[in-house]
Amino acid sequence: MVNSLVELAPHDAEVKAALLQMVEKRIRMMTDLIAKAQRAGEIRSNLEPFQLAQQLMIAMAGFATMVKGFLDPAQGLKVIDDLIDSWT
After folding, report:
1. Whether the predicted pLDDT of 3 surpasses 70
2. What is the pTM of this model?
3. Please, what is the angle between helix 49-66 and helix 73-85, to 10°?
4. How many domains does the chain have?
5. Residue-number span of the structural domain to which 32 is assigned
C-alpha cells in the first residue's frame, strides 16, 4: 500500500481513490478499536481516538518503509509498542 501511495497515487486518480478508501476504512476501524480500549480503561480517555488512529497509521507506514532494508522488524515493532504504550 505504501509503495502504491508513493509511486502511483500522485499520477493515477483511480489508484489514489482506491488507496484513500482503504486508508479511511483502516482509520475508522482503528478509531473504533481505540475508543473501545478507552471505554475499557486501557487507553487514557483524554486522548482523541481519531488522532491516535492517524498517529498509528503514520507510524505503521513508516515501519513498512523502514523494514525494507533499514530497520530490523523487531526494532520497528518495539517503536510501535512504545507509541501505543504512551497512550496508557
Report:
1. no
2. 0.81
3. 170
4. 1
5. 2-85
Q: Is residue 53 packed enough to be buried (19+ CB in 10 Å), middle (13-18) or exposed (0-12)?
A: buried
The burial class, CB within 10 Å (0-12 / 13-18 / 19+), for 52 is: buried
Give the pLDDT mean for 19-38: 94
pLDDT of residue 78 exceeding 70, the answer is: yes
Contact 38, 49 (CB under 8 A): yes
Q: Which of 52, 61, 62 is nearest to 30 (CA)?
A: 52
CA angle 55/58/60 to nearest 5° reads: 105
Give CA–CA dist 48/42, Å, rounded. Answer: 14
CB 63 within 8 A of CB 79: yes
Rounded distance between C-alpha atoms, residue 42 and residue 49, angstroms: 12
48-76 pLDDT tens trace: 999 999 999 999 888 888 888 888 889 88
